[in-house]
Amino acid sequence: MTKNELVLDGHKLEWHKDRLDAWLKGKLIVPITIDCALTRSCTYRCTYCYGKLQDNDIKKMTLDVILRFLDDAAEIGVKAISFVSDGESTCSPYIYDAILRGKANGLDLALGTNGYLLKDDKLEEILPALTYLRFNVSAAERSRYSEIMGCKEACYDKVMETIKKCVKIKKRLNLDVTIGLQMVLMPQFADQIIPMAKLGKELGVDYTVIKHCSDDENNSLGVDYQKYFNLIETLKEAESYSNESYTVKAKWSKILSEGKREYTQCYGPAFIMQFSGSGLVAPCGMLFNDKYKDFHIGNIVDTSFKKIWKSQRYREVLNKLASNKFNSKTDCGTLCLQHKCNEHLWKLKRGIIKIKSPKGEPPAHKNFV
User: Fold this and answer.
1) Residue 147 burial (C-beta neighbours within 10 Å; 0-12, 13-18, 19+)
2) CA-CA distance, 54 to 69, in Å (whole number)?
3) 205: alpha, beta or left? (left if phi > 0; alpha if psi -120 to 50)
4) Can you spell out the DSSP letters for 240-295?
5) Sheet containing 298-299: order of strands
6) Strands 298-299 and 280-282
7) Over the stretch 139-166, which tens digit does the pLDDT of each residue have?
8) What is the number of helices (H) and of strands (E) in the chain?
9) Strands, DSSP E only, in 137-265?
């Protein structure tokens, strides 16, 4: 593996041997990455949005709550925070303060956004503080963008201009931040695959990643995973637009998995934890909904994350997920954020593979496992 290589379809656990060792010994570890939103609000109504399946008791995160969380995370040893999860974090007026505070605390920061509310006059301030900035753009053509992402066509124009400005600032200031596009692919969006590959190149971003669409255990979004197999050649063609400065990558391992898992227990949240934009601390986004209250750990609006992490409740929930009382094949949705980590941890736990020290330079964004 060469330095700065992007891992867009896999995990980076090997680069955190100390926590893997501790976890295998049964010790409580600090999450390497926390994926969270600062609000459950969103300006768009994407047709594929998993957020509508994640309803829970909404509490408003104030600036004090957000800064306390970022201070706690740094103090206990969290390495990276990605502002993604179940809401559009740019809807929070505190997103810029959060990015700067997190960076000042020594955390790696990332932002996933539709980009519509991202303030252009803040870009020069936040881009140097971000490890990566990912724009969620699931259609390259203006009319299809509006249709698929549930917004006015004019939103497309604003977002494209913002992406161009980000690229210009990165080049002018010679920044390390990675700027990318993410397409959430449902089979019925196939007409946008090649246009997306071309769009990313035209905009000058570092990558375009094409990923599967997750669904819940009841197939509420109606994703037909078998139909992804009809798109293999088109996805390969999209990847052919890659060159030395631009990467197009399909998340093959998930797109062609048929939405199935090999593992039953869930170990990933110990390494990558998720918070809802309501402040809810839960193991993962699949379990945000109120119907999964048995897996809810606490809320950072009410209690500091440091106390939540040290609590008996935190241990109880993670231990339940890792026990025979939980079956990820039937008890939660498909292809979650922790999926690739879970595949690796499942094999480690059963002695199928052993911890190895990775060779070469670390990949880009190694703290976003």
Assistant:
1) middle
2) 22
3) beta
4) TT-BTTBEEEE-HHHHTTTT--S--S--GGGTEEEE-TTSEEES-GGG-SGGGGGG
5) 247-250, 207-211, 178-184, 132-136, 108-113, 80-83, 33-36, 272-275, 280-282, 298-299
6) antiparallel
7) 999 999 999 999 999 999 999 999 999 9
8) 13, 10
9) 178-184, 207-211, 247-250
pTM: 0.93
User: How far does CA 254 lie from the centroid of its chain?
Assistant: 14
Percent of the chain residues past pLDDT 70, beyond the cut: 98
Q: Which residue has the tokens 């994407």?
A: 46
Measured from the Cβ of residue 217, the count of other Cβ atoms closer than 10 Å reads: 13
Confidence at residue 53, expressed as pLDDT on a 0 to 100 scale: 67
CA atoms of 242 and 240, how far apart (whole Å): 5
**CA-based torsion, 348, 353, 354, 358: positive or negative:** negative
- Please name the amino acid found at residue 227: K
CA-based nearest residue to 190, from 261, 257, 238, 244: 238
* Mean pLDDT calculated for residue range 10-19: 94
Residue with tokens 């900035």: 133
Q: How confident is the model at residue 254 (pLDDT cuts 50, 70, 90)?
A: confident
Worst-scoring range by mean pLDDT, 5-9, 64-68, 265-269, 308-312? Answer: 5-9
d(CA 236, CA 185): 14
Q: What angle do CA 296, 297, 303 make, to 5 degrees?
A: 130
Distance CA 184, CA 168 (A): 25
- Residue 354 confidence (pLDDT): 93
> What CA dihedral angle connects 326, 331, 337 and 343, to 10 degrees?
50
Q: What is the pLDDT of residue 1?
A: 33
Backbone angles phi, psi at 25, to 5 degrees: -85, 0
Q: Residue 98 and residue 337: Cα distance in Å, rounded?
A: 22
For 253, counting Cβ atoms within 10 Å of its Cβ (0-12 exposed, 13-18 middle, 19+ buried), the class is middle
Question: From start to end of 280-364, where are the E strands?
Answer: 280-282, 298-299
